[in-house]
Each structure stands twice: as C-alpha cells, then as structure tokens.
C-alpha cells in the first residue's frame, strides 16, 4: 500500500466484501501466503461485526418508530373518547 488513504480504502473494501477477491490475489502475489491470516480475520470478524452493527441500528430505529406510532395511536384514542 502506497499511502494511508489507499490502505484505508482497501480495508473498507475488505469489510464490505466489495470485490475483495482481486485485492486478495494482488496481496497474495506480492506479499505471500502469510497475509492470508489478515484477510480471514478482517472478513470474518470485521465484516460480520459491521453487518451486525448495521442491523442493530436498523432494528433499534424500527423499534423506536413503532413505539412512537403506538403512543400516538393511544393519544388519539384518548382524545376521541373525551369527545
């Protein structure tokens, strides 16, 4: 990797699994088989952690939205009953 920016972009590609096979082949040719451990760790730990984190954020946002909708429905029902 020539600079920090390219290394960071390559790591992001690995974590999102976007065409990571090409990056793996290039690294394998230039550095050898010892870097396979890095790829395995980043793919299994990094990308799955990232996916779980995104799913958790989406689930929390859905739960908050659902709770707000239920609260609004309860308030409207109370207003309707007071009429």
UniProtKB/TrEMBL annotation:
Where, per UniProt, does this protein localize?
Membrane
PANTHER family linked to this entry = SODIUM CHANNEL PROTEIN TYPE 4 SUBUNIT ALPHA, VOLTAGE-GATED CATION CHANNEL CALCIUM AND SODIUM
Where is the Ion transport domain positioned along the sequence? 1-69
- Presence of the UniProt keyword Ion transport in the record: yes
Q: Does the keyword Cell division apply?
A: no
| Entry membrane topology | Multi-pass membrane protein
Give the matching Gene3D superfamilies: 1.10.287.70
What protein name is recorded for this chain? Sodium channel protein type 4 subunit alpha
Which regions span the lipid bilayer?
35-62
Q: Name one GO biological process term.
A: neuronal action potential
Q: Name one GO molecular function term.
A: voltage-gated sodium channel activity
């Amino acid at each position: 990797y020539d600079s920090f920016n390219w290394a960071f972009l390559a790591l992001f590609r690995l974590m999102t699994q976007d065409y990571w096979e090409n990056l793996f082949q290039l690294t394998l040719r230039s550095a050898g088989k010892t870097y396979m451990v890095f790829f395995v760790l980043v793919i299994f730990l990094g990308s799955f952690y990232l996916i779980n984190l995104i799913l958790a954020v989406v689930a929390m946002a859905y739960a908050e939205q659902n709770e707000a909708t239920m609260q609004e429905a309860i308030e409207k029902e109370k207003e309707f009953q007071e009429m």
